[in-house]
Structure prediction request, 315 residues.
Amino acid sequence: MATASRLLTLLAMMSTRPHWSAFELAERLEITERTVRRDITRLREIGYPVEAAPGVHGGYRLGSGGKIPPLLLDDDEAVAMAIGLAAAAGAGSSGLEVAAVSALSKLDRVLPPRLRERVNALGNVTLGLRGTEVPAVNTDVLVVLALACQRPERIRFDYRDAQDQTSHRITEPYRLVFTDRHWYLVANDTGRKAWRTFRVDRIAELVSTGIPFTHGDVPDAAAQVAAGVAVWGYDLRATVRLEATRAETERMIPPTVGVIQHDDATSTTVRIGGEAPWIARYLAGLPCAFEVVDPPEVRDELRALGRRLLHDHKR
Prediction:
């Protein structure tokens, strides 16, 4: 093993454990203990604080206060790091965006082509709603979906819906979108000839067909997922007119809670899905006047909530 390669391996080994004996290092690296001591000296000379303890139970440990050792990542670790850095770079409020972009660019420069395609696919076809936390999901499934969106090529899979019914789908994937709870795939369902949203954790038996296609008119993927999460996933949907501008409404109501229908200079109409008591409590907490256009169940819940508050706070 060449000296430079051996030093990198030595650093990587010392990063994994708090203590190594000279014998262990020599055995793992297939060198003599004398060569281990020379390599430790070289590491110290280039700025890595390797501490040594004498005696029978002595050995070496990587100290603090020096350079960060090189990271030796496997394929999945490199992709995961790139995803996390991309999320941090787009956070907008963490204070680490510039550093994240710098780190991501350094990682990108050293990625082999096969990993760069995976990372680029995830970055190019992924959108976020609400925050920067990326929900847990099967990475292999996510990467296959991202590559299919990027290329683009058709995929087929089994899909389990909210009623626990499974169907076979052939789709033309377009974008991946994540909320604070789930990942979603926005794709053209060729069997239903319509754009659909699929929760990624409900996808099974995923296969990339290798069949290319060309997108025609495409939807706003983030808006489609937001509408599904906020409104269309519920049996009861309320229409509410707020005495607030569109900009004020967007600051008050996240896209995964309510979808704006239309607005004018002084008011904005939104649709909100959910159970009537929850919608009533949510609306009561808004810092603006509003009118529930429909359904009457939400108006009834608001009146009941008002009566309870008056009763509990008479004094």
